[in-house]
Amino acid sequence: MSIKPLFPQCSIVILAGGQGSRMGGQDKGWVNWRGKPMIEHIQQVVRPLTDDLIISCNRNQSRYSALADQNIRDATLDFSGPMAGISQALQIAKQPLLLIVPCDSPAITIDLLAPLYQAGLNQAAFMQQGEQFEPLFSAIPATAK
Fold it and tell me: What global pTM score does this model have?
């Protein structure tokens, strides 16, 4: 029996494809925070939200595959940045809305994502903190392919 996702019209991509240059080259998703890898904290929050969880990862593909419905990697292997992962996710998203979250945000909550999801149902939406936009927390139409 499948459980109805809380965000039924939404695919979610967790961006975990970076070089980890600020972390000495470590794969950020697998860096421990409060006793477990950051990617596991995020996956536990977003898993009930969608029936299409995508992880964008350029390393450790088999390790990440246990946590998602789909894994993707950048079209080029030069660590092109988050837009490369977003572009690939847009190509395979199964739902009309793509919610984007970075892997190094382990304290994320559903309360933080719900308004972003709701806003994204009407138009592209980006999280904002004061005057600063946070584009790696966004909801965009998957039709933006």
Answer: 0.89
pLDDT tens profile 81-127: 788 889 899 999 999 999 999 999 999 999 999 999 999 998 999 98
CB-count burial class (<10 Å; 0-12, 13-18, 19+) for 139: buried
With contact defined as beta carbons under 8 Å apart, do 106 and 29 qualify?
no
Phi-psi group of 60: left, alpha or beta (phi > 0 → left; psi -120 to 50 → alpha; rest → beta): left
Q: Which long-range contacts (CB under 8 A, 24 or more apart) does 57-62 make?
A: 57/16, 57/17, 57/27, 57/29, 58/17, 58/18, 59/17, 59/27, 60/27, 60/29, 60/30
Are 50 and 5 in contact, with CB atoms under 8 Å apart? yes
Residue 91, CA distances (Å) to 54, 60, 137 in order = 11, 21, 19
Q: In whole angstroms, give the CA distance from residue 98 to residue 96.
A: 7
Q: What is the pLDDT of residues 24-47, one digit of tens each?
A: 567 888 989 999 999 999 999 999
Maximum Cα interatomic distance, the chain, rounded to a whole number of Å: 44
